[in-house]
Amino acid sequence: MLVSEIDMITPSSLSECLTQLSKEGRKHRLIAGGTDAVVRMKEGKWRPEIWINIKNLKELRYIEESKDFIHIGPLATHTDITHSPLLQRKADVLVDAAGEVGATQMQKMGTIGGNIGTASPAGDTLPALYVLGALLELTSLKNKRIVPIQEFIIGPGRTVLKENEMITKILIKPQRQNEKGIFQKLGPRKAQSISIVNVAISLTMDQDRKCVEGKIAFGSVAPTIIRARKCESMLTLGPLNDELIQNIAKIAWKEVMPISDGRATAAYRRDMASALLERGLYRLIRRWENQ
Amino acid sequence: MSTKWVGKRVKRIDGPEKVTGELKYMTDYQFDDMVWGKVLRSEYPHAKINSIDIEEAKNLHGVICVLTHKDIPGFNGFGIVVPDQPVLCSDVVRCTGDAVALVAAETLEIAEQALSLIKVDYEPLEVVADAEYALTESAPKLHPDGNLHSHVKIKNGNIEQAFEEADIIVENTFYSPRQMHAFIETEGGWGIMDDEGFLTIRCPGQYAYRDRMQIARSLAYNAERIRVISSPIGGAFGGKDEITVQIYLALLALHTNGRPVKIHLSREESVIAGIKRHPFKVCMKTAAKKDGTLLANQVKAIGDTGAYASLGGAVIALAIEHSCGPYKIPNVDLEGFCVYTNNGISGAFRGFGVNQVCMGIETHMDMIAEKLGMDPIELRKKNVYHQGEVSSVGHIVKSSVGTYKTLEMAENCDLWKNREKYKSEVCEPWKKRGVSLATSFHGIGMGIGLPDYGAASIELLPDGKFLVGVGCEEIGGGNSTVYAQVAAEMLKCDISNIRIVQGDTKNTLDGGTVTASRSTYTGGRAVAAAAPKMTELLNQTAAEMLNLPAASVDLRPNHISADGQIIPYKSIYEHLYEKHQSTRVEGHFYLPKEKEEIKGSGGAPHHLYGYLTHVVMVEVDTLTGETDVLRVVSIPDAGKVINPQGLEGQAEGGAVMGIGYTLFEDVLIENGYHKTRNFTDYIIPTIRETPLIETFPVEEPEQSGPFGAKGIGEVVMIPIIAAIMSAIYDATGARICHLPATPERVFNALKDLKNQKVQSTR
């Protein structure tokens, strides 16, 4: 398929979009911000017959709160997320992560739905969504289902999304009053970089540096995002002083299974899982104490 | 001397249109009747070509022509020194950047499709992936004379005896990366042949006249019938010194029936086909006495020049000439090898070999200082050569030398004086800071063996303004503003009355390259040579017009004054025009050179050098190995500074490029294939990696230069490399001798250090 032969249609509503998606016998693909899609088209990897352009579907771009959940439209951009006062208060870890995606231009164009759909092991918002227990609403013309994010992604670039489905909502559990999060990223440089390792942490804190409950998710160290259950279970062993932080961090390398690529070796990635967790926990405690 | 323009912070004359984006670079243009050219690159890093079948490609609808080596009318080769690179390969390919065929088509997409329809029958050959392996008996020969392209040697004194007598010896091996120029405008341009067979090539390059010569040789075409326009350039840094696509454009233009043909490499193609900086392995052994006097230096440098020579021989020669730093070391044994491999093509790049050796000698200076308990500045001051003294390579340095002054300035700068305070200001326990400095130098101009000259023209225009023509292109560094400043100064006019044309074989004289830190010096001096002739022309004409003796006519700001009358330049033009007299003058000069070449050195010494000292502060995250350069002080000796603002631009850009070289950048090639393919995985510094950079010039005027100026375009990125390496050591105790110092390399060095400590306490 040549680029010049690809058609593009721009549905004006969600239902029109779902109707388009339901059409069989042709290859189509959604395009929103295009920060992944255009690159892959140029590389020859994504050459559908039709692009379904959803960039301007306003009804899918929102950030709202209901009784139990925060609802994020899949077309919310990373900039929408970093600028949202609601998320700043109740999902700081996601705000942190969205602010580390690529660079300003990509944050303005790229959408959270796209970051999820691309399902890159290095996707920066994904670990944050894991610790926030994100649920995804997948909709087709005739059906609607809710899938937890850890069940949605099945491998690098592979998801359970069907040809006729799209992500129509992201539900996250708001952080509690005494819950604080942080996102740490190690890339080959500070801006415009793909993660070598990243980690999202969210801790529910009590008095005296005591952690009641904590969640930790690593990116870029396995085929999918990894929840570090062993480390999580140690968070509550005692006050999170420097010694306990270091001990927890030392365990992290056991929970990851990275590979070597052009950006780093597997051995370094393993070491960095520990390093980022240590740095992240230290900084998070500081944030907690300084708030 | 009081000046109105020279030495002042004059705004870039090309600034507004570049900042607003109004300026169109050559590759920005599109034309209605244009066609697209594409180059078929080799599939293999090393292979025999059995056959090339273009039939199917030719028959694709929308294809205008498909060309192979059979369609080259003249010589099938190019290369600045040795033309050993085929324009289009006929029998063998030696790297994946090699060109095998050309296509012109109605659209870019059709051209790309046509490339995929060309069937080349290759027979893969063993790949030479390593420069040291290339020198062994068992490696296949990539060129008829073998894999050693050049070998240079400088030997003075008695090195063996010196090592025996030395109190201290340091010895290390340094590895440096294959840096990419990463200019914003990738290689590209236009070719068009008119009805009369006059060929115009518009293609950013660093020497229009030489490009024209290389085009003419391949086309077997009268060079006078070819016009090359090579300026402005969207960045080059040496990467457009060699032919990029000019000959392809010319060949295609012969077959497009007068339609303009455009080639513009994608970034991916530029990564593979474009020239890169030579990766070096440098083994260095340096000896000193207890009091810090340097005794001896032994250097063996091997440079990977890739598949073709380009300027590789000259790069190695310059590296060896500079391998002892700006010091006087009596006993030296310096040897350089320029070696062919199948790893792309290496060639000219800002610094031209000096970067790779500076990191060695300057690291050794710091190691010696530390072992002797000496201050690193004191050690350097003790060993630098001064004007009139003998350098390490054994020649008397007659031109100005500013190293000592730059070291004094470094000693007194805030960052150095208060370094202990700044180092203690870390905000997290695992962060460590270090402050360090390094000094270096860089030859200006071509060195011995290559003719080196400058030329400029000044033309009086109908509106009374002056058109100053200089061959040296506006590469982005601001030389056009320098030329305007020199012309305005000498013609006593406002700078707005000066127009500049550069890099155009029709409108400028051959004045040599825009390389070798030479364009301010050479072009500036050429303008300064032409200006008095223009003054004379103006005065004489005015005198003639008024029937007065020439002596009573005077050049004043923006006009001629004679006998109480004011004569505007416009009327002088009209007078000359009516008389059918030329309104154009030329200035020529020959660059000063050393008389005798150091035997075996491949062109050393240079007559002129620019000098520079860098002081840097880094912060290392010892948890991850990330290095952050927080502050840079750049102290150049560029002679008299013609435009302080321009100098700062060079100093800042150079510092950032040096940071990239030291910490991030490397084009990875494995077994001849590029692992690095795009900017996604080639990491250059962004504004977030850009520290506070201060520039404090010491102005050590050079008698021979225009208003006392020298050159600075390259050395601005050199000592910072060694300074960052030493600052990492100062911060953490880990020495990194393999660049780039990526977080992973620094982290592993720190890990090794920890393990060593554990072992030694057991």
TrEMBL record, chain A:
Spell out the protein name for this chain: FAD-binding PCMH-type domain-containing protein
Alphabetized Gene3D superfamilies for the sequence: 3.30.465.10, CO dehydrogenase flavoprotein, C-terminal domain, Uridine Diphospho-n-acetylenolpyruvylglucosamine Reductase, domain 2
- Give yes or no: UniProt keyword Oxidoreductase: yes
User: Which ranges carry the FAD-binding PCMH-type domain?
Assistant: 1-177
Short name of one Pfam family for this protein? CO_deh_flav_C
Keywords associated with the record: Flavoprotein, Oxidoreductase
> InterPro entries from the xrefs?
CO_DH_flav_C, CO_DH_flav_C_dom_sf, Diverse_Substr_Oxidored, FAD-bd_PCMH, FAD-bd_PCMH-like_sf, FAD-bd_PCMH_sub1, FAD-bd_PCMH_sub2, Mopterin_DH_FAD-bd
Is Flavoprotein one of the keywords UniProt gives this record?
Answer: yes
What molecular function does GO assign, one term?
A: FAD binding
Automatic annotation (TrEMBL), chain B:
Q: Which positions fall inside the Aldehyde oxidase/xanthine dehydrogenase a/b hammerhead domain? A: 20-126
Please name the GO terms that the record assigns under molecular function: iron ion binding; oxidoreductase activity
Query: Which InterPro entries does the UniProt entry name for this protein?
Result: Ald_Oxase/Xan_DH_a/b (IPR000674), Ald_Oxase/Xan_DH_a/b_sf (IPR036856), Ald_Oxase/xanthine_DH-like (IPR016208), AldOxase/xan_DH_MoCoBD1 (IPR008274), AldOxase/xan_DH_MoCoBD2 (IPR046867), AldOxase/xan_DH_Mopterin-bd_sf (IPR037165)
Task: Give the Pfam families listed for this entry.
Answer: Ald_Xan_dh_C, MoCoBD_1, MoCoBD_2
**Which domain of life does the protein's organism represent?**
Bacteria
> PANTHER family in the record, alphabetically?
XANTHINE DEHYDROGENASE, XANTHINE DEHYDROGENASE SUBUNIT D-RELATED
Q: What is this protein called?
A: Oxidoreductase
